[in-house]
Amino acid sequence: MFFSEKTLCGAFRAFCLAFLFALLSPPTQVDATPRNDFPEFPIIRNNVDFWEKIYSTYSLNTAVVHDQNDLTKIYEVVALIDHDIPGAQRINNNHLQTIKEKYEQILLRLSSGHPPETRDEQRVARMFEGSSAHRTMRFAAENIRAQNGQKERFLEGTLRSTKYINRIKQIFHEYGLPGDLAYLPHVESSFNTQAYSKCGAAGIWQFTRSTGKQYMRIDHRIDERRDPLISTRAAAQLLKKNYEALGSWPLAITAYNYGTAGMVRAAQAHGSYENIFRHYEEGYFKFASRNFYSEFLAARKVAKELSARQAQRPEVSETTRSSFQAGSAGRQTVSKNVKAAPAAQRLPAAISPPVVQSTKHLRTRPRLRLYRVKRGDTATSIAASANISVQELCRENNLNPKAILRFGQSLRIPARDSAPREKETLRSVSTPGKKSAAATTTTKQPLRSISESRTHCRQVLARLNVLRPEIPC
Question: How far is 296 from 280, CA to CA, in rounded Å?
Fold first, then answer.
């Protein structure tokens, strides 16, 4: 094939122009900024700050009384009675109700045009400014809410999460999802595998039975929601489905709480997450769903800070550890005195002297037997026939006290000894030149008769068997 001189000159000219254009063009800028899957929008920044303080500053014995639509308006921080005290929940609820009614009356009084008189009224009045302040106060009087602090519970959840967090991140990466989704259980359950909500949601990912059955086995024998890794794979599938349907992680995470179908309707009506947060009020999209993504961002930040702080702590030397265990038995002593199994010898915890001296006994998990529910059975009748309490029955089977038993359901029943022991064996008494002997006594046998028959002083018997002598020798 032959080319004319004109054609060759044209091709050469075009090549030269293209080469010069490439040289003169500015270099293409490569965006080195890492992708932000979880943006903190300006509209939710105050909400994120609020939840950070709930997770890291306010304790469980503290309640924050605030406006549920504007979390910057905190009316009062209330001290509560310790939850372990009997009747504390009722007392705390009544106290919080009184506080909320107090601020409701203040807001209604100020909204009607009365000038602020008390210090509380003046403080509340400064929270509302502008020409529409009175109307805003009237609306705020109907939206007073109390939020308990979570500082201790969040710290416990962070410590629990160390068992699973790396494996959970790995599972999310296997599904092509961001690893930081692993911090979502802090919001749902504080990484408590036994968490069970009043709505029937279970496990660290708080799957309801209906949703969980789409991804896991849930029946009267096996409930995979309580397995942290199996339920993580289920959560990864659900979150991936949400993201594919909604196209952004703020919406996908909110859908984990509110539901995929509901968030699709919200996105069709309002578009972006910011617009949904600002305007959407349909159905059950209330305080919990509106704040769910903000809680996730706050939990992720606080959990990372706590983990970094924990990693920076210096290692404790063996010498320091030994001083912490003063007065407790070591592994060799435990193995020698209580015949500990080899696995128990590897445990780092020590056992207190009363256990080693046999004045107290190690608690072991009771033997279990299975019972199949029959027609007409109730939790009370089953517990009574097994000689256990209803609370023990519910606790052993992870049942809600209001749960309904089904015909054919298998229950775990802790075994009980049929009758109490009638005899107790005293420990061996060693005498010089003689073999050790053990005396067997019936219940309530006097110490004097034993000492006379064995020619031992009552004080010696008492000291060897950790008893109190009746009278001096």
Answer: 20
Residue 380 belongs to what domain range?
Answer: 368-413
Q: What are phi and psi of 424, to 5 degrees?
A: -130, 140
Tell me whether residue 372 is in a domain.
yes
Residue of 52, 188, 224, 295 marked catalytic: 188
Residues 340 and 389 in one domain: no
Least confident range of 199-203, 249-253, 453-457: 453-457
10 Å CB burial of residue 397 (0-12, 13-18, 19+) is: middle
Q: Are residues 398 and 283 in the same domain?
A: no
Active-site residue, 188 included:
yes
Q: CA-CA distance, 330 to 317, in Å (whole number)? A: 17
What is the average per-residue pLDDT within 326-338?
49
Q: How far is CA 135 from CA 43, 172, 277, 279, 309, in A?
A: 22, 47, 22, 19, 46
Of 90, 67, 211, nearest to 146 by C-alpha is 67
Exposure string of 83-93, with b = 16+ CB inside 10 Å and e = fewer, is eeeeeeeeebe
Q: Are 461 and 467 in contact (CB under 8 A)?
A: yes
